[in-house]
C-alpha cells in the first residue's frame, strides 16, 4: 500500500495523457530507484557545471520511473536548481571582474524564465519540440565556428555596454530554460562566444550564474503552481550539489578545445533526444 506521501503526489497530478494513474516515486523507492536518481543527479550536476544539458539525464530517468512529463519536468527543475547554485560557487574565481555582465544580464534572464515557466503551465506539452531542436542545432553550429567568427566579425568594445543582441539572446534562451531547459547552457555559451571577448572558462562561470537565475526563478514558480514531486526533487537536489562541485573542479582544467568539443556533443545529444 502506498504511503500518505504517495497519495499526496497522486492527488497532485501524476497521470499520463489518458488520465490513467501512473506509478509514483514512493512505490519504487525500494531498491534501485533511489540509487538511480542519486546517480543521475550527481552526473547531471557535474554536466551542468561544465557544459549544461544535465536534464537530458535526469528527465528521462524520472519518466522511466512512471512520472507524467510535466511532473518530471518541474520536479527535475526544482532539484537541479540547487546544483546550479553549487556550480556558481564552484566557478566563483572565474566570476571575478564580471560583475557588470552579471548585473546587465540578470533582468532579461529573470523575465525570460518567468515567461517560460508560465508557458509550460499553459501550453500543450509537445509545443517546444517545434522550435527547440532547430535552436540547439544553431547553437552547436555557432560553437563550432566561434573561433572563425571571432576573427572575422568586428565587435563593439564591451566597455560601451552589452548592446542589445546579448540581452535579447539571453531573454530568449531563458524563456526556453524556464520551459524545459536542456542544453540552455550550450546556447548561452554560443551567445557569449560570439558577442563577448573572453575565455571559455569565464564564459562558463557566467553561464552558470544565468542558469542559476533561470532555473531558480522557474523552480519558485513550480513550487507554488505546479505538481512538484518532492521525493525525486530532493534526491536530485542533494546529489546535484555534490556533482556540481566535482564538475567545477574538473571543468576548469579542460582546454578550450576539449570544452568546445563537450559543448558540441551535449548539443547533438540534446537534439537526438528531442527528435526521438
What does this structure look like?
The structure is a single chain. The protein is mainly alpha-helical. Helix content is 73%, strand content 0%. The longest helix has 26 residues. The N terminus is likely disordered.
Query: What is the molecular shape?
Result: globular
Major sheet size, sense and barrel closure: none
Count of domain modules: 1
Sheet/helix structural class: mainly alpha
Radius of gyration: 18 Å
Spans of at least 5 consecutive residues with low confidence: 1-28
For the termini, the CA-CA separation is 35 Å
Beta-strand content estimate: under 5%
Mean of all residue-level pLDDT scores: 81
What is the N-to-C order of secondary-structure elements (H for helix, E for strand)?
HHHHHHHHHHH
Q: Helical residue percent?
A: over 70%
Helix count equals: 11
Number of strands: 0
Topology:
Layout: H1 4-11, H2 32-50, H3 55-64, H4 69-90, H5 99-122, H6 129-152, H7 165-179, H8 184-195, H9 200-225, H10 230-251, H11 256-275
Helix pairs in contact: 2-3, 2-4, 2-10, 3-4, 4-9, 4-10, 5-7, 5-9, 6-8, 6-11, 7-8, 7-9, 8-9
Amino acid at each position: 500500500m502506498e504511503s500518505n506521501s504517495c497519495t499526496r503526489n497522486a492527488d497532485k497530478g501524476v497521470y499520463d495523457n489518458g488520465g490513467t494513474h501512473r506509478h509514483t516515486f514512493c512505490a519504487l523507492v525500494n531498491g534501485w530507484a533511489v540509487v538511480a536518481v542519486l546517480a543521475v543527479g550527481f552526473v547531471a550536476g557535474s554536466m551542468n557545471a561544465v557544459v549544461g544539458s544535465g536534464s537530458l539525464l535526469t528527465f528521462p530517468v524520472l519518466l522511466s520511473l512512471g512520472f507524467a512529463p510535466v511532473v518530471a519536468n518541474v520536479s527535475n527543475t526544482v532539484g537541479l536548481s540547487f546544483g546550479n547554485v553549487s556550480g556558481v560557487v564552484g566557478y566563483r574565481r572565474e566570476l571575478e571582474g564580471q560583475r557588470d555582465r552579471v548585473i546587465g544580464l540578470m533582468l532579461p534572464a529573470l523575465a525570460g524564465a518567468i515567461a517560460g515557466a508560465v508557458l509550460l503551465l499553459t501550453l500543450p506539452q509537445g509545443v517546444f519540440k517545434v522550435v527547440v531542436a532547430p535552436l540547439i542545432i544553431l547553437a552547436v553550429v555557432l560553437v563550432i565556428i566561434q573561433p572563425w567568427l571571432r576573427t572575422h566579425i568586428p565587435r563593439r568594445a564591451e566597455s560601451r555596454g552589452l548592446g542589445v543582441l546579448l540581452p535579447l539572446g539571453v531573454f530568449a534562451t531563458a524563456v526556453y530554460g524556464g520551459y524545459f531547459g536542456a542544453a540552455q547552457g550550450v546556447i548561452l555559451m554560443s551567445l557569449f562566444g560570439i558577442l563577448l571577448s573572453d575565455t571559455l572558462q569565464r564564459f562558463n562561470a557566467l553561464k552558470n550564474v544565468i542558469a542559476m537565475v533561470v532555473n531558480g526563478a522557474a523552480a519558485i514558480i513550480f513550487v507554488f503552481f505546479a505538481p512538484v514531486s518532492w521525493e525525486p526533487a530532493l534526491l536530485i537536489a542533494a546529489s546535484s550539489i555534490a556533482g556540481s562541485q566535482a564538475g567545477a573542479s574538473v571543468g576548469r582544467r579542460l582546454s578550450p578545445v576539449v570544452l568546445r568539443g563537450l559543448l558540441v556533443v551535449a548539443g547533438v545529444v540534446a537534439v537526438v533526444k528531442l527528435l526521438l
